[in-house]
Amino acid sequence: MIIVYILLGLILLSLLSWVTMIKPSGKKHPLEAEIRKYIYAHRGLHDKKNGIPENSMAAFRIAAEKGYGIELDIHLSSDGTPVIIHDTSLRRTAGAAINITDIHDSDIKKYTLEGTDQRIPFFSEVLREIEGKVPLLIELKVDNDNYGELADTVLKELEGYVGIYAIQSFDPRAVRHLRKKHPHIMRGQLSGFLRKNGDTLHRALDFGLRNLLTNFITKPHFIAYRVQDTGKASVRLCRALYKPLELNWTCRKRAHHVIAHKNGAIPIFENYIPS
Asked: How many of the other CB atoms lie within 10 Å of CB of 105?
């Protein structure tokens, strides 16, 4: 009987630990209501068939014109300048076997996106173009453990910007850095079943992220979870217990959009125009 009590105690302790670790920030951010007013065009309102590349000035301009919030990705160039591009390598988007982290600012405009005349934008260009018309959902893309420099540099660039924005990352170190050094900034933790879908991150980190177990150190104001994985236990439990602001990525068809709405989540979409 003692063994049964010990086992029950261990089970209860495990459940308590689980519930505690998945808890996001206990305080709603003041910008939450504004962020909720929009749905977000993933890498801008891009359309490859019509020559509008992802993460391009054209894609951002059209998204803003149609009243969609904008999701975009930031790396640092070789000179430490925030640049808008999803992959570290330019191979997929610009057909060049070079990393953005190895390119000097003076050379960035030499590369065109997806065979068009659109070029890789600097973050400063996007801020000047959008000018607060719609919210920005900014993803920090960490390279070579530069999470602190990346976060600080992006926020330096945002000084004086009058628009609404939130910052998110898959890297919990970046989100924790925001929590510690810039607690007033609205921060989000990106997650999902990442290794299952081709990511090469460490198994332990994948387990922690997909189960929201890093929330206890990052205390995100929102979670952004892969839409196909949102029925998993940790996400459902977090949603039920804490009712966090939730975004779902990437909704690539209307069925995904429906799932996001059923979750009470904000869609981050591409490949279709929401009705």
From this structure: 13
pTM for the whole structure: 0.95
Is residue 212 within 8 Å of residue 22, measured between CB atoms?
A: yes
Q: Report the distance separating Cα 7 and Cα 267, nearest Å.
A: 42
Residue spans per domain, the chain: 34-70+123-269
C-alpha span between 151 and 171 (Å, rounded): 11
Calpha distance 84→51 (Å, rounded): 18
Work out the burial of residue 73: count CB atoms within 10 Å of its CB; fewer than 13 is exposed, 13-18 middle, 19 or more buried: middle
207-241 per-position pLDDT tens digit: 999 999 999 999 999 999 999 999 999 999 999 99
Distance (Å) of CA 260 to CA 71, 205, 249: 16, 25, 9
Asked if the 34-70+123-269 domain carries CATH number 3.20.20.190, the reply is yes
Q: How far apart are CA 19 and CA 215, in angstroms?
A: 10
* Ranges of the chain with pLDDT below 70: 4-15
